[in-house]
Amino acid sequence: MVSPVRSHAVFIRIQYTIGTARMGVVDVPMRRSERCATLSRMPSTHVPRRSSAIGPLELTGRSRAHVREDGGLTMQPVALAAFRKMCRAASSAGIDLAAASGFRDFDRQVLIWNQKWRGERALLDAAGRPIDATRLRPVPRARAILVWSAPPGASRHHWGSDVDVYDRAALGPDGRFGLVPSEYEPGGVFARLTEWLDQNMAAFGFYRPYVTDRGGVRPEPWHLSHVKTARDASRRLRLATLRRAIVESPIEGRATLLKMLPQVYQRYVRSVDPPPVLPARTKRRAVD
User: Fold this and answer.
1) What is the predicted pLDDT for the residue at 215?
2) Fewer beta carbons under 10 A from the terminal one: N or C of the chain?
């Protein structure tokens, strides 16, 4: 008999037995496309431990103590368990719910910011048109990056509560997608996913923090927050905590960002859609 006992980002560990005798364990390589499917198939007994309160290092992505990796996805344990349940429910509706990004640490966010600042990574305006970062002065350049990317230390992905999602079953033969709003709108490749999430995500404790254009981060229909864990982190993240993380890091344009930080904190960190009142716990089935 072959039974999965633990999965990793690159390998799945298989325990094999003959009769009742345990013969050994072998690590088998997994393709990236298999990992979220493995996550959604995990038995319900494989439930991560409840997460504890997080401090300044965890809030800014400089520590991973509050998250765990399971099946190729890293989140806070409670959020991860809820996402796994939602994956299984979506599967029954013919949707292969997958995570493009879960927890993202501070160093990764610094890399994204610095590459955009130097013009080494695509930089888009609010309409999705390419911008040449090297032609912009420091303040306009920082503002252009902030349209689609949080400054290091301020990303909700640091909290382990947020996840970017897509429907792997809806992808074309090349498997490419861009995480752009048009893909999630009516007629888009992930339109059915959007409709299913609209009807079901609250039952699993998730919502979209970036629906309304509030003059900060542009709407991101792919970005989901686990309400309970994100709400706790949001309450704890203070301007002073964010400032300290940026001062101590090798961020391009750091002096400019620090001057802008009070405005950035209010406009891009605090100005999000509020979480909804979650439904009472019931045995409600997901809508197909």
Assistant:
1) 83
2) N
Q: Per the structure block, which two tokens stand in for 171?
A: 């992808």
Domain holding 198: CATH number? 3.30.1380.10
- The answer as to whether 283 is a domain residue is no
Task: Output the CA–CA distances (angstroms, integers) from residue 125 to 97, 109, 135, 147, 221, in the order listed.
Answer: 28, 19, 14, 7, 17
**Those residues with Cβ within 8 angstroms of residue 185's Cβ, 6 or more apart along the chain or in another chain:** 191, 194, 221
Report whether pLDDT(2) > 50.
no
Q: Cβ–Cβ contacts within 10 Å for residue 230, how many?
A: 24
Q: Cα separation of 226 and 86, whole Å?
A: 11
Mean pLDDT of all residues in 12-27: 39
- Residue 288 located in a structural domain: no
Burial of 47 (0-12, 13-18, 19+ CB in 10 A): middle
Whether residue 240 lies inside any domain: the answer is: yes
* DSSP letter for each residue of 118-177: TTSS--B-TTS-B--GGGS-HHHHHHHHHTT-PPTT--GGGGT-EEEEEEGGG--TT---
Containing 260, the helix (H) or strand (E) segment is helix 254-264
Residue 152 has pLDDT above 50, yes or no: yes
pLDDT at 75 over 90: yes
User: Residue 186 falls within a domain, yes or no?
Assistant: yes
- The single residue listed with the structure tokens 């301020």 is 154
> In total, how many domains does the chain have?
1
> And the tokens for 283?
């045995």
* pLDDT given for residue 280 in this prediction: 64
For all residues of the chain together, what is the average pLDDT?
84
Tell me the per-residue pLDDT of 262-271, one tens digit each, with 9 for 90 and over: 999 999 999 9
